[in-house]
Fold this sequence. Notes:
The chain has 258 residues and is mainly α. It has one domain. It has helices spanning 2-7, 10-29, 40-92, 115-139, 143-170, 175-183, 189-202, 206-230, 236-257. Helix 2 runs parallel beside helix 5.
Amino acid sequence: xxxxxxxxxxxxxxxxxxxxxxxxxxxxxxxxxxxxxxxxxxxxxxxxxxxxxxxxxxxxxxxxxxxxxxxxxxxxxxxxxxxxxxxxxxxxxxxxxxxxxxxxxxxxxxxxxxxxxxxxxxxxxxxxxxxxxxxxxxxxxxxxxxxxxxxxxxxxxxxxxxxxxxxxxxxxxxxxxxxxxxxxxxxxxxxxxxxxxxxxxxxxxxxxxxxxxxxxxxxxxxxxxxxxxxxxxxxxxxxxxxxxxxxxxxxxxxxxxx
Length: 258
């Protein structure tokens, strides 16, 4: 099986890997079928872990190879472009932060959309760069590093799906519907991964810029959304420990497989 995967083309590899990250989101959302809530300190620690994984993935799995393949200037350009794009999207598109949505107010232009619709747009924005990062990594034909990145993103997807689904369940949504919205948070990742892989295969010049842009977008999400939402309850200690643990796990994965 591993030999077959190694011999598959980059686009197919990216699609399979990103489908796995999506499925891990669904696995993480499963508890909502049986429970209405979870200890907030536990959720803060888990979301801190997710943030640590994303920051480490941005550094070790994306920016470091981007600099190695295209130089500091290309990596810096991509990093600024990715962060700038997300800033504009944050300002111009109506959305609702995905993590702990029962605490979030709608942002962006005022529209008469339902909260699930706003949440869906936010989830798409949040997870698109993660899927793109997986696709770009596989398009670069560095199988070990790409696998490490996909595993890391899959791990941080587990608590993210639950953090979206539990508040919906507490708000009165049925277990099935809450599970549906939770697992849907990563449904865009397989599509984004194919786009990323195709862009790299079409032009190798896109590789360093694309990797750095994905890193910039992920860092924007962590600083603008994940960290503020995680420490909102005041459990800064467990969120910080979770962040460090997530960073260490992703750093170890990248150096073991990369």
